[in-house]
Predict the structure.
Amino acid sequence: MAGRKQTTVKKPLLQPDNRGPRTIKRGDQVAELIKSWINDGKVRPGVRLNKEAELQDLFKVSRGSMREALKALEVQGLVSLSTGPDGGATITRVPLARAFQSLQNFLFFESISLEDIYGVRRVLEPLLAAGAVEHLTDADFEALERSVEVCEPFVASHEHALDQRHEDIHFHDVLAAANPNAFLRCLCQIINQMLHSLVVVAGNVTQQEYQAFGRKTVAAHRAILDAARRRDASAVEQLMAVHMEEAEAQLRKVHAALRQKLVLDSDLGLRAGGKRGS
């Protein structure tokens, strides 16, 4: 195992806060300094910070303040904390789950509907799919094909139907991952996560209605996949635009709605001292 990569920065000096009677806690000051290291490129994702005792000495703070700083950074998704002899803090890329959680918790206090989401999705998803076409690999095509195949069999149960609808969303995640526009990709992936986690349908929806929804989705995905294999970005964009219109109409037929809720760490598999699975 490679040795711990030490952070090579000058010893920081925590400055007193002169902005008024409310002082900035030392733990918060430390967190801000470490974020400035990330911002300046002094530490990158994958770099492990010095051990906790060494960081305490570096920043001249108590153990409690140091732990408070690291915990704050973990909550923001900027470090991953681990325990044990080789444990400590490792700089990480902010996971998409954290971005989704923050946005959804903001939107919890706003009045948004499924129609609002599809108003945005109708614009973004065709652009995203078209931009992904030339970047799709053989592995991507295999993943898209598997997604379509999972959704084609006869639905035997309500639970299986829900699994198929989640796989429908995965089809769009594969396209998103292939698009090189990171901003567009992030927006569409967050929308997909919202649809996956927060959309609920009426309890009296019949299996026939689920099947009708599934058949239309499979047909649309198959057509999009065939056009993508031909590297026909224009056709993919047009097909996706039609698919978005049909998908919203189908969701209305099954009386779908957006469940307003705060997203907890446990909802996303995020927990203190651990990382979310892939």
Q: What stands out?
A: DSSP finds eleven helices and four strands in the chain. The chain has two domains: 26-91, 97-268. The radius of gyration is 23 Å. Residues 26-91 form a domain with the Arc Repressor Mutant, subunit A fold (CATH 1.10.10.10).
